[in-house]
């Protein structure tokens, strides 16, 4: 096998998938961003949040659920965000639980691939308490450590 590789490499006939090639120090890094919502004492039964990276050098590569009633499944999102949508995704979820979570709750974790370091922001698009009445909520994103 080594002999075959040695013969094919100089001829340009050896192709390695990108994932198996070594990357330099400026290569992509995978990071996770936790998304939190805080509706205070009011129950957060439904929410829709936009998460955006401050650079075009990021790509959404995964979406996970959060804590409590938002843990078992990822929030709803447009799959196009994972197929070239850039560093922006809108996520949304709801719970029919009798007691919707109150206070600060992690509603989602978004995974990004960064070609360059990025900062992330979030904007609340909609929130509702049990019964469907609109409420306000504070949103926050926390960038977790990454790995190459």
Please provide a brief summary of the model.
By secondary structure, the protein is mainly β. Helix content is 5%, strand content 44%. It has 1 helix and 8 strands, in the order αββββββββ.
Overall description:
By secondary structure, the protein is mainly beta. The protein has a single domain, classed as Immunoglobulin-like. 5% of the residues lie in helices and 44% in strands. The chain contains one helix and eight strands. The protein has a four-stranded antiparallel β-sheet, with no helix packed on it. Residues 1-24 have low confidence and may be disordered.
Output the keywords.
about 150 residues; disordered N terminus; four-stranded antiparallel sheet; 1 helix; Immunoglobulin-like; mainly beta
Number of strands: 8
Helix content: under 10%
Shape: elongated
Radius of gyration: 20 Å
CATH class: Mainly Beta
Q: Supply the helix-strand structural class.
A: mainly beta
CATH-defined topology: Immunoglobulin-like
Major sheet summary line? 4 strands, antiparallel
Contiguous uncertain segments of 5+ residues? 1-24
Order of the strands making up the biggest sheet: 3-6-1-8
- The CATH architecture classification is Sandwich
Number of helical elements? 1
Q: Tell me the distance between the termini.
A: 29 Å
How many structural domains?
1
Strand content: 35-45%
Question: H/E order of the elements?
Answer: HEEEEEEEE
Average pLDDT works out at: 83
